[in-house]
Amino acid sequence: MPVPLSAETIRQAPKVLLHDHLDGGLRPSTIVDIAGRIGYRALPTTDVDELATWFRDASSSGSLERYLETFSHTVAVMQTVEGLRRVAREAVEDLAADGVVYAEIRWAPEQHTEGGLTLEQVVEAVLSGFREGEAAAAAAGQTIRVGAIATAMRHAARSLEIAELAVRYRDDGVVGFDIAGAEAGYPPTRHLDAFEYLRRENAHFTIHAGEAFGLPSIWEAIQWCGTDRLGHGVRIVDDITAGGKLGRLAQYVRDKRIPLEMCPSSNVQTGAANSIEEHPIGMLRRLQFRVTVNTDNRLMSQTSMTRELTLLAEAFHYTWADLQWFTVNAMKSAFIGFDERLAIINSVVKPGYARLTA
Question: Which residues are annotated as a binding site?
Fold first, then answer.
C-alpha cells in the first residue's frame, strides 16, 4: 500500500529545486547574529521569532516591489566572505534536511560588494559555502548536489559582466545565469548583449518573466533572448482560455517543453496568484506543461519544498505520481549535464518514490 500523503511523508520524498534565492533563504537567527557581529543596526527587531514574523508579513503585501524591499536586510549581512560562506553552507544544510537532493541556488554577486569584496571573491565564497554544506549534509547521511546560478539585476547595467563571471566559473559550480528584480519597465531585451554572449558560449540561462508583468515579458524572454527556462511564468495562463484552448505563445511554450519555475506561496504573496487553490499551476499541470515546483524565498514565504508540495497536494488532491512528475520535470530541466540528470532521476528520484508507493 502507498504511504499516505502528509507533510511528514512528503519530507521523506526526494525533491528537486530550481528556483531558490540565496538572499531569500537565510535563517532569522543567522541574520541577527551576523548583524550583531558587523554592527548592522537597521533590523526591525533583534528578536529571532519576531524577525521571522516581520519578514513574512512584510512580504505578504501583494506587491512585488514591497516584497523585494525585504532583501535590504538579508543582503546587508552578506557582505563578507565569512557571511557569504555561512549563509551558503546553511542553505544547503537546510535544503538537505528537507529532502532536497538537487538544487540550483541563485544570487546576485553585484549586490555583495559594498564591503569591498570583488565579484570573484563573492562567487568563490558562495561556492565554498555550497561545498561545505554538501559535505556537512553527507556527514549527516543526506545526499544533495547544489549548482549556483549567477544573477544580474535587471534595473542595473552589469548583466554582461555577470554573464562573463558565470561562464568563468562554470567549471567550478556556476551552472547558469539569470536576471531578476522588478519586471515593469525593465524588459529582458535591455540585456540582449548578455544573452547573446551566453549563447555564443553555449551557457545556460533562465529569465524571471511572467510574474509581475504579462505575456510580452514571456514572449521577449523566449523569442528575443532565447531563455532555457522561465522564472515563474505564471502569466502564460493569460494565453489560455477557461476551456483550456491554448493561444500561439502558450502552445509554443508547451510544445517546446520550456520549463516553468513556479513558486506557489511566493506567487500568492506578490499578487501573481490569488491563492494556492487558484494558482495556475493546477491548470498547467493538467495541460502537461513542463511545470516545476519551487520555493523562491524560503525566509520571506516561511516555506520549504515540503510545504510547497504539501499545499499543492491538499489544494489539487495530488498523489505521489503527481509529486514524482513535478520532481522528474525539474531534474530534466536542471542546468547540469544529461548524464548527471539521468543518474539522479534513475538512482535517487525514482527509487525514492518507489519506496513511498510500494
Answer: 19, 21, 23, 181, 208, 296
Whether the model clears a pTM of 0.85, i.e. scores above it, the answer is: yes
User: Which conformational region is residue 292 in: left (phi greater than 0), alpha (psi within -120 to 50 degrees), or beta?
Assistant: beta
Please give the tally of structural domains in the chain: 1
Residue 139's CATH number: 3.20.20.140
Catalytic residue list contains 93: no
The residue range of the domain holding 60 is 23-353
- The catalytic residue among 93, 104, 164, 211 is 211
Is residue 358 assigned to a domain?
no
Which residue ranges are tagged as binding site for Zn(2+)? 19, 21, 208, 296
Listing DSSP states for 112-158 in one string gives G-TTS--HHHHHHHHHHHHHHHHHHHHHTT---EEEEEEEEETTSS-
Q: Which of 7-11, 180-184, 208-212, 256-260 has the lowest mean pLDDT?
A: 180-184
pLDDT at 358: 83
Interval 28-81: pLDDT, tens: 999 999 999 999 999 999 999 999 999 998 888 766 677 778 999 999 999 999
Specify binding-site residues for substrate. 21, 23, 181
